[in-house]
Amino acid sequence: MKTRKIGGSGLEVAPLAFGGNVFGWTVDEKQSFKLLDAFVAAGFNLVDTADMYSRWVPGNHGGESETIIGKWFKQTDKRDKVVLATKVGMEMGPDKKGLSKPYIFKAVEDSLKRLQTDRIDLYQSHKDDPDTPVEETLEAFGELIKQGKVRAIGASNYSAARLAESLKFSKAEGLPAYQCLQPQYNLMERAGYEHDLEPLCDRENIGVIPYYSLASGFLSGKYRTEDDLKKSARGQGVKKYLDARGFRVLDALEAVAAETASNPARVAIAWLIARPSVTAPIASATSIEQLDDLIEATRLELDDAAIKRLNEASAIA
What we know:
oxidoreductase, alpha/beta, oxidoreductase activity, two-stranded antiparallel sheet, 10 strands, TIM Barrel, globular, AKR_Detox_Biosynth, eight-stranded parallel β-sheet
């Protein structure tokens, strides 16, 4: 499989990342192992998680996803087959959040322990911490890279201004720089990334691994009415897309799917993969059937006419 480079990190990945947010939430440990086995067996290698996954689930405390992945590493000895990405910064409890140097040093040890590994390939700031200077955060990451605990760093949910400030400081001080950005980006959420972040990532050779690639499942086409929102745990998250633009996008996806003997979800992922600035979209699966669908999406090459149709349908007036 043809791989893509994550910025200048030296990391190379297949063009699809498995989103580990479902582990310990909508997927139990046994099913998680099956999905990870199948993902790697199909030639893919980028697994993305975060320390706080899945703290939002009643009874969970955060760390559930990393713990499951760590158990899978130990049971299967497949650590070297995976480019492991995790994140730090979201709240894990009282006084357990942010990007200060002391907290990053504590959080990375907790993540390494849960993941049962001695290194994190891509360690990402989960969101900007306005209370901590970028200098402090980058110096902390620099120490972790020196220690061999982290190979490369990335940023998630950063504004273009804050990302540019971080890159400027790294260059001026000779510190490791963010090699990757993880933004929300899909056919329904285009403006936030395309207006300011995409030009910056292109200019600075920053890899991009967008999340919510299917807009919380909306782009699969399974949500057409408010009654459909009851179909899954994520249903309420797509209510905002049930408007004229949303239906226009779904119609375009279905048309392209019919022309390519595919389906809307595959087409939506293929549209992201075809975007020159995108390295590997992140998508989750709760069943082998869903995973097979994602894998098929990486084999779907959209022609210029299909991409134009989708671009026009999803354009913001």
